[in-house]
Write a structure and sequence with these properties.
The structure is a homodimer of 359-residue chains.
Chain A: H1 2-10, H2 16-28, H3 37-50, E1 60-67, H4 83-93, H5 97-105, E2 108-115, E3 126-128, H6 146-165, E4 170-176, H7 180-192, H8 196-199, H9 208-225, H10 232-239, H11 242-256, E5 261-263, H12 266-278, E6 286-288, H13 296-304, H14 320-338, H15 342-345
Parallel strand pairs in A: 1-2, 1-4, 2-3, 4-5, 5-6
Chain lengths: 359, 359
């Protein structure tokens, strides 16, 4: 608990001075002020996060956390649980979607076993932080104990700090875990207060009957477990997942160390709800990557007050949307750092006043 | 006219066989089918454009065409006309927004003087295809002759073919020209049939009074010139611009040679209206990059039946949105080409049938 408390204690507001300096520079560059829209906003936000007026993102890491979910016993997924370890090996072989997109944007991928329900072979790129081999079935009992929830969060903070020690300018969150949209739906329902039916999506691709069943499972589980939205640790413990807790830890670690953290889709969004539930100030450090097809994600982003950068109808997870968003963040900072100013380029600025208009 | 006619004659439909092969491969990759949404669609479209089941985009070119507009006499812009040549030099020095973003995505930039109202110093990266030093003021007379319109289009085709000869897998369009949102507004109004008031935007950043004036200028000019939407050459000649004609030529050249062409914002959209007015089949070769803040752009994309990839509140032009979209196209093709299939990875597919749901 000390690690978690200390980390939260370090999270402060954005650096207003760095943001003002970045804004002033954006306005001096050879383009009409504001004409690069959200790229300008992004660069200013990263300045505020890092405290640097001219930040860069050379060193990028995508943390993909895997965990299994006891709730799959209820028949909520289109894929069998064995897919979780199979996909972990796929990540480690470098041939999954996240590997392809990470290479595309020049990011490294770190895969973390937070609670896969199988013994995984050791691998140099695999961090083993297994809290337990899968959560308990939260339809019948809490997904994990409060102690396990803290352990998952602190593991996430430590994974982040290990990445930071290797050199890190930006981090992104990704997930793998059959059943994890069900846990995320429960978390989203508790924090946003919106009806479960409006938050439940098709995950890996379930049909209509199974979708209705999934919503019912979540609804009944929340009624039985009674997670308290004012106590984020309680929510994580009762209806969460080990990888969700781990990703919330990554977010808290990033915010504490003033590193921008790109959040992927619905599962990362659920992790962000847990992280900001524990520490509202962490919200300012989040870069929302994309708008997932998984319908609950929109509610999560609305609740967090975040507008996603991409809208590509993605619903894979793994950090795939976050990888693409890293490239936009990098582009925004290159604009800030590499473009000429009007003065340097000898380009005329806007007309002093509007011209006298011909009648 | 021969060049233009021949080019249009070469434009055919997408390759259905290549698209079917790409779709089959997407469905065999280690992810739930469809879960990478628009990235999957994009890769399939590029297969259809190129006729290759596994296309790649190594060689990328962004063609930035510059031209001046006689209509600026009417007081429609926030910046003086001298900014057009100043920005051309800025592009050639490699310090404008488009240079930064082109480097970010690994694309080369070719700058073309299609009709700048100034004598430009020669430069190895500058193509001089000046039709005339700026269009005529289309409030008072046609912007150009029909012969000049053909000349602009054929120059665009030749610029494209010169890029193709250097090696090219994807091309993007960009623009520079003080006054060119006014010409584009007129083109958009003629082709879409929507009211000028709903299509007129702030361009480089004009105020409310000037905005109303700009709409009035366009409305009156269309009433006087009477461009015929069934004759795209007539529209280009009466209310267009040399860079707009040149970009329409680039689009036609790309479609004729089965190279995907990423269109940037409002000016590139106007060029796409001219190109598809001349040859409707060219539409299939367009990749719409982003949704510009310039309000007429949404109507243009709707009219073309295209959904943009990015929504970043950009309104700079130069090809900046297109540059970012190139990176998404490349990502989509890397997914198609580099991900493992379920069979290769030994990952289980979806459950054969929905599980028997517990009562």
């Amino acid at each position: 608990m000390t690690k978690l408390r200390e980390t939260i204690g370090r999270i402060g507001p954005l650096d207003e001075g760095a943001m003002a300096a970045a804004k002033a520079r954006q306005d001096s560059l050879t383009k009409p002020p504001g004409s690069l829209g959200r790229l300008e906003e992004l660069s200013i936000k990263i300045a505020g996060i890092t405290g640097k007026p001219l930040p860069g993102v050379e060193r990028k890491s995508i943390v993909v956390m895997a965990g299994d979910h006891g709730i799959v016993e209820e028949g909520v997924s289109a894929y069998p649980q064995e897919v979780t370890p199979q996909m972990v090996y796929n990540f480690l072989r470098g041939v999954a979607a996240i590997n392809v997109l990470a290479r595309h944007v020049g990011a490294r991928v770190v895969v973390v076993d937070m609670g896969v329900a199988a013994d995984l072979e050791p691998h140099p790129d695999l961090r083993s932080r297994k809290v337990a081999p899968g959560t308990a079935n939260f339809a019948k009992e809490p997904a994990m104990s409060r102690e396990q929830a803290v352990k998952a969060l602190e593991a996430g903070i430590e994974v982040f700090e290990a990445e930071l020690a290797k050199g890190l300018d930006i981090v992104a969150t990704g997930d793998m875990g059959i059943g994890n949209t069900t846990a995320s739906t429960a978390i989203a329902a508790v924090f946003t207060g919106e009806p479960v039916g409006l938050l439940t999506g098709r995950g890996t691709g379930i049909g209509d009957e199974q979708l209705a069943h999934k919503a019912k499972v979540v609804e009944e589980a929340i009624a039985r477990r009674q997670p308290d939205p004012r106590d984020a640790l309680d929510v994580l413990a009762k209806v969460g997942g080990f990888e969700i807790g781990g990703l919330a830890g990554v977010i808290l670690g990033a915010a504490a160390h003033r590193v921008p953290v790109v959040i992927d889709g619905f599962i990362s969004g659920a992790a962000a709800l847990v992280a900001t539930g524990l520490c509202p100030a962490a919200r300012e450090y989040l870069i929302p990557a994309h708008n997932s097809v998984e319908i609950g994600h929109q509610s999560v982003l609305r609740h967090l007050g975040l507008r996603p950068l991409l809208n590509l109808d993605l619903r894979l997870g793994e950090g795939t949307g976050a990888a693409l968003a890293i490239s936009l963040v990098e582009a925004s900072l290159k604009i800030l750092g590499q473009m000429a100013t009007f003065a340097e380029a000898g380009v005329s600025g806007a007309l002093e006043a509007e011209p006298t208009l011909p009648k």
